[in-house]
Amino acid sequence: MRKAHLERNTNETKINLTLNLDGSGESHIDTGIGFFDHMLSLLAFHSNFDIDLVAQGDLEVCDHHTIEDCGIVLGKAFKEALQDKKGIRRYGSFTIPMDETLCNVTLDLSSRSYLVYHCELKRERVGSFSCEMVEEFLRAFAFNAGITLHVNVYYGTNDHHKIEAIFKALGQALKQAVIVDGDKIFSSKGVLEG
């Protein structure tokens, strides 16, 4: 089984994470930010990853440190769980409609970290979650996991729907990319390293 367990303790956050890429989509998420918990639960469900994550952060300051650090830890655990990436399909792409919103997430588990993010959000917050933190979470996750990640919300009017569509599509794209479909490294170079 492809699993990883990580702890990160700083003056701003304390995070404990167990990630299983070969799970069933079960999750236990507690970050103190309700909407973020919901998004990470959707990510787990749509990826079929088991995610057990508890974070205690300086929410009296704001949600930035907690959300970004969760992205860092999740990215590092994902990279560790993938090991040498032998046999994985590597690429994933998923387009999801969520009512009036249409979103695509396309990714490459190449070890070359990059984020392209196109999503206009009008609200400052959804619940206690700062909308600007969607991009920050995705960047932290992609750069620590070694993923080239493209997120495009083509249209929509409801910010809740846009954000939810991103997390669902990310889960589905990751599910495709981590499928083991052979015994070779899927790269003409013979390695998937930066």
Overall average residue pLDDT:
95
- The termini sit apart by 24 Å
Percentage of β-strand residues: 25-35%
Question: What portion of residues is helical?
Answer: 25-40%
Q: What is the number of E strands?
A: 10
Number of helices: 4
SSE string, helices as H and strands as E:
EEEHEHEEEEEHEH
| Rg over alpha carbons | 16 Å
Number of domains: 1
Structural class: alpha+beta
Identify the CATH homologous superfamily: Imidazole glycerol phosphate dehydratase, domain 1
- In CATH, the topology is named Ribosomal Protein S5, domain 2
- Structural shape: globular
> What's the story with the biggest beta sheet?
4 strands, mixed
In which order are the strands of the major sheet placed?
A: 1-2-4-3
As residue ranges, the low-confidence spans are none
> For this structure, what is the CATH class?
Alpha Beta
CATH architecture: 2-Layer Sandwich
Question: Could you explain how this protein is built, in words?
Answer:
This protein is 34% helix and 31% strand. With 194 residues, the protein is of the alpha+beta class. The protein has a single domain (3-177), classed as Ribosomal Protein S5, domain 2 (2-Layer Sandwich). The strands form three sheets. A four-stranded mixed β-sheet has the order 1-2-4-3, with helices on one face. The model has no long low-confidence stretch (mean pLDDT 95). It is found in: Cytoplasm.
